[in-house]
Amino acid sequence: xxxxxxGGTGLIGSAVVAELLSAQHTVxxxxxxxxxxxxxxxxxxxxxxxxxTDLDVLRGEAxxxxxxxxxxxSNDFSSPEALAxxxxxxxxxxxxxxxxxVGTDKPLVTVSGTPLAQGRPAVEEDxxxxxxxxxxxxxxxxxxxxxxxRGVRSTAIRLPRTVHNxxxxxxxxxxxxxxxxxxxxxxxxxxxxxxxxVHALDAAVLFRLAxxxxxxxxxxxxxxxxxxxxxDITAVIxxxxxxxxxxxxxxxxxxxxxxFAADQPASSAHTRTALGWQPTxxxxxxxxxxxxx
Length: 293
Prior knowledge:
- By secondary structure, this protein is an alpha/beta fold.
- The protein has helices spanning 11-22, 34-43, 55-64, 80-100, 135-146, 170-182, 200-213, 230-241, 257-261, 269-275, 284-288, and strands at 2-6, 26-31, 46-49, 67-70, 107-113, 153-159, 162-164, 185-187, 194-199, 218-221, 225-229, 245-247.
- The chain folds into two domains: 2-161 and 198-224, NAD(P)-binding Rossmann-like Domain (Rossmann fold); 163-196 and 226-266 and 281-288, UDP-galactose 4-epimerase, domain 1 (Alpha-Beta Complex).
- The model has no long low-confidence stretch (mean pLDDT 95).
- Residues 267-293 are annotated as: Disordered.
- Residues 3-216 form the NAD-dependent epimerase/dehydratase domain.
- GO terms for molecular function: aldehyde dehydrogenase (NAD+) activity.
């Protein structure tokens, strides 16, 4: 299969590209910069230059491909306005990719977060939230899944709060960055809120399985660890960095404060049974032990 991928040089995307190539697929990666292009080529992918705002490039590559994996997102959490702009740009890009595949029965694999389910771990059937700082991403994903009725084998991989590799990545990685800057491994509230997690290499296998065989209009949970308490996460971060782990005001996390404070465990039982996905890599708490002081 000839696969076009956006976001193919990030922590998750690099793992997905390697997984696809190991399964004998060919990959064309969107690259916005010279550094990204060089990294993609070094991994064995072909390269097309452009970014998420280059909609004609996205449409053209989607039309030429046998399948599309969309992962790119600017991850600019510096302000509510920057985050809103990132969500808007991604929505337009996903619309362009999806519309280019209408009537082809080709796969389109996109990505979202796992949803919130009050009092229990979220499951694949739970709806995505369309409010909050990143609610617009859910709207775009649901539109993409709706293309199943228009001849697109669209699926969504729901990623947990932290996708990690070698002690870095995801929201746990952001907590590590903040701890390095402030000298405190902080968490909002009492820290009992739970975050699910998955190793990037395990998540990559699920992306491949969805691309190859997932039915149209379906969502899947890339969850290996159902939910670690945030204070347990920051305890490891603090110990590895030699800084205290303690509660800090939610407002200190800016636009991400409400997200960081939410209890949001998630299950992947259906995904494992239906697609035969079995995570085998280190857990988040094990992987955080690789943080360098």
